[in-house]
Each structure stands twice: as C-alpha cells, then as structure tokens.
C-alpha cells in the first residue's frame, strides 16, 4: 500500500476535488468530518447537515483504500459506515444513482482492501451482506440516516451493503 498520508483521488473526481478535502479533514481530526452548513451541502460537499444521534465532532467516516479495476491504482474513498462486530458495513448508495459506485465495482473484482479508521489502518476482506443480515444492517442505517432510504428509492435498485471484515 502507498503512503497513507498521501491523498489519492476517486476515479471520477479531478485532483483537488471534495474527496481530497474530506480525506485531509478526516486525517486532521482523527476520523471525523465536520457537519456541512447549508451552503456547503448546496455546493456539493457530501457530508450532510447535522443528523440527530451524532455529536458535534461530525460524522465518523472510514477511508476505504481499494484497487481500481481499470487503472490498477490505489484509490481512497471516504464512506459512511456502521460498526458490525469487529468490522464495518459500508453502503453503495452512489447518492441515489442507478449505477453502483466505482469503489463497489472495485471491491467485487478485488475484495482485499484497507480501511483507515481514526488513526489505524486495517487490512480487510469485503463481502456482500445478504438476506436477514443485509436487512438488519440496512434498517439500522436508514433509521440513523433516513436520507439513505431516499437514495435507494431514487436509484431504483437495492443498495448493496458491503461488510468489511478484518483480514
């Protein structure tokens, strides 16, 4: 894996885009990213306005380090997560797009990845949650962040729930 202090772009984002700003803030604040103001959110900053149940530090995120299917390069995506046992569940909402996000397609092709959480970087293996496990994780996430239900309705697809288990 490359230097974790480096900032790597998402396949679809130009250098200097929001991913880089979120990654830098995540690393500066030990895994948290501040809530967006209404103006930030309107300008496309992907962290939502304050959500009940989370404190003033902001939303805890993980940074998913994965390998691009097309490029073979290491990519980093900041993602909302839910703790699941000793691992993390992440959600392929792609903001309500009918297409799966690139990071999801990359994990399907190569499930070995790394998760940066707070100040720790952990090797993980990704697997798709299915059936009752998916339903349980998804219903908790929708209860915590109702916007995810809107994303699923807009996408007109079942949002994949990916469990990242420590390798």
C-alpha termini separation: 15 Å
Mean pLDDT: 84
Count of individual beta strands: 8
Q: Could you name the ranges where pLDDT drops below 50 across 5 or more consecutive residues?
A: 1-15
What is the number of helices? 5
Percent range for helical residues?
A: 25-40%
Structural class: alpha+beta
Q: How large is the share of residues in beta strands?
A: 25-35%
Judging from the principal axes of the Cα atoms, what is the shape?
globular
Order of helical and strand elements: HEHEEEEHEEHHE
Largest sheet: 8 strands, antiparallel
> Measured on Cα atoms, how large is the radius of gyration?
15 Å
Tell me the layout of helices and strands:
Blueprint lengths: L17 H11 L3 E2 L4 H5 L16 E9 L6 E7 L1 E3 L2 E5 L10 H8 L2 E6 L2 E9 L2 H14 L2 H9 L5 E6 L1
Antiparallel strand pairs: 1-2, 2-3, 2-6, 4-5, 5-8, 6-7, 7-8
